[in-house]
Amino acid sequence: MSGTSDGAGAVTATPAAGTPIPVEEPAHGLGVSLPSADAPAKAEGTFPYAADLWAEGLLWAAVLRSPHPRARILSIDTKHAVEMPGVRVVVTHEDVPGDAGHGRGTADRPVFAKDEVRHHGEPIAAVAADHPDTARLAAAAIDVEYEIQDAVTDPQLAFEAEPLHPDGNLIRHIPLRFGDPDVVGEVMVEGLYRIGRQDPAPIGAEAGLAVPRPDGGVEIYTASTDPHTDRDLAAASFGLEPDQVKVVVTGVPGATADREDPGIQLPLGLLALRTGCPVKLAATREESFLAHAHRHPTLLRYRHHADAEGKLVKVEAQILMDAGAYADTSADALAAAVSFSCGPYVVPHAVVDGWAVRTNNPPSGHVRGEGALQVCAAYEGQMDKLAARLGLEPDEIRLRNVMATGDLLPTGQTVTCPAPVAELLDAVKEAPLPELPKDAPEAEWLLPGGPEGAGEPGAVRRGVGYALGMVHMLGAEGTDEVSTATVKVSGSVATVICAAVETGSGFSTLARQIVQETLGVDEVHIAGVDTDQPPAGAACHGRHTWVSGGAVERAAKMVRTQLLQPLAHKFGMSTELLQINDGKITSYDGVLSTTVAEALDGKELWATAQCRPHPTEPLDESGQGDAFVGLAFCAIRCVADVDIELGTIRVVEMTVAQDVGRVLNPRQLRARIEAGVTQGLGAALMENLRTTRGQVRHPDLTGYALPTALDAPDIRIVKLVEERDVIAPFGAKPASAVPVVTSPAAVASAVRAATGRPIGRLPIRPQAAVAQVVQQ
């Protein structure tokens, strides 16, 4: 028999002749497609989201936001709002008892604007009233006198503009220097690239409930993805000790970024403390667009040098990231962009400068693949240009330069983790191409623009493009990554207590699988998350698979030792000679055979453990340093049909090969990859939160286009490389960020191939996809 894979980790055994026979999977444990425990509730509409919360004596909140991207505040008159029937309290900057500023990276963002507003939608005041309509009307009745200022919306002008913030306009500059900066290649190509402002567009808009406590503290119920950081920010703003503020995580309706903007939570808690009543706020979709962070719009200038054979010699780049009004996580995003500016390629010399600057545009922050997505679109565009200049195929120029384990990043860090980039590229290159649509009426829906599109089949050109992407795992530059978990076993039930938030990444399912495999207990409950538990950190960069999953595994193994030690002592053997399978404990020689429940004998066993990966270091003044714990890679081939007269684009197929370390849940992994590819498709073709002089245009799901099921292409996962990372628990790597990073570059590459146009802007505009017509 031979073993084959379906591309999602499920293995079939194939006889010498005949059809594949599925291998029967175990009922639980790692490597099994265990379904999510909350899937039925979400499908049935009974899952408890923050917008569904209720409390006795509930008041409703509304936030007044700035209609201007930049203005001085001359006065704030709340008199008319306070006098409205049903209004309990109105709060402004004067009512913030603690720190006036907050922020995930730098505390540079006010709870409420004081002397000036710096972006469209910035909070000015908040109202608590007995009805949501009353609260909204009262917020609208607050009279704010503005002196409108000229907004600085071009990040290139931020260097010379007057300071928009007391901390200045420059958030961070990273000058990376690697090798000899004076080296030149025989062939040189240049490019200018612009990446738009992608919104995380959560399924549910932000919402929360704040409940005052008898001890003078407050509890905040919200869909936080980093509850301990949110607690600390809130406590500092409220002038309270951290233990006086409790954040309880409700159901998270999906998260591809920092799910909750503190501009929602902080007014909520402040209103609850002022009124002594529970206060609820459910943001409108417009408020959601204005309040939370978006992907950094980025301007990139590149120059690639190569020899006559296509081997890279040097990369020069300038990367300018628009942080919007406040710093947030822009310094971290810039570090990723600069560090990965050359891509998963061997580059002996690099000169890269990166800047993150403040403007009066909407705030930017953490969105899946931040920094890495922007540079991937640029360096892959450069590889296409280099291939065209040298007369090579796009896949061949990439194959001649791919990185492998042991190579150096331009930061000087050695790639010690598995880096099977060539293997990934070969897998997508060798996969069969999709068939061309037949010239038949029933196939008209296959044309770009759909069945009602105005295009003609004769104007459609098919393009095939390639892209290679990379992301880092966990935090970077000295971030102290740590998570704590407790595992308890009583009878035939195990409980996991860990403050790792389930955002759709599948951590809750993974935690169940870990305990099932380690302890042989089928029924595993995952406790709700709140800040009374030890911190587990933010739900990003694959942290919870690695750090929190590692903590759960260690705690489960400690409980396993407690369970097996008395038995091992009784039979005069070590615990290593005992194994647990399907709830049964057996010895290597078959002498001992009992159940987990019998071994427990009514006792409750528990253990608490931490997981902390090896430390990293900040980049130095030359952009050098071991800044990352590990890396993950992806290759995507895109096949796209383009109407070269109208500029309409239909992505036919995305072929994916990914470096995953180890498949822990095949079905869940496939879903994560498909979702990541689709999110990247949105960044490539349609998603761009447009602004006019800093004013957000159409902040709703009508004006902001998202990919639907009709836009999603066929996504073929042709290879998952399971080369385990020895320093990672289970050897697994994060799954969803790297396809998000890679797919926009692959789409742009396919459109270049179809049209011959350079395609330097994402999302791709129709006029950019119209092929040049040469007059004969």
Automatic annotation (TrEMBL):
Pfam families linked: Ald_Xan_dh_C (PF01315), MoCoBD_1 (PF02738), MoCoBD_2 (PF20256)
InterPro entries tied to this protein: Ald_Oxase/Xan_DH_a/b, Ald_Oxase/Xan_DH_a/b_sf, Ald_Oxase/xanthine_DH-like, AldOxase/xan_DH_MoCoBD1, AldOxase/xan_DH_MoCoBD2, AldOxase/xan_DH_Mopterin-bd_sf
Disordered: annotated segments: 1-37
Domain of life: Bacteria
Aldehyde oxidase/xanthine dehydrogenase a/b hammerhead domain segment(s): 44-150
Chain intervals with Low complexity compositional bias: 7-22
Protein name per its UniProtKB record: Xanthine dehydrogenase family protein molybdopterin-binding subunit
Species this chain originates from: Streptomyces caniferus
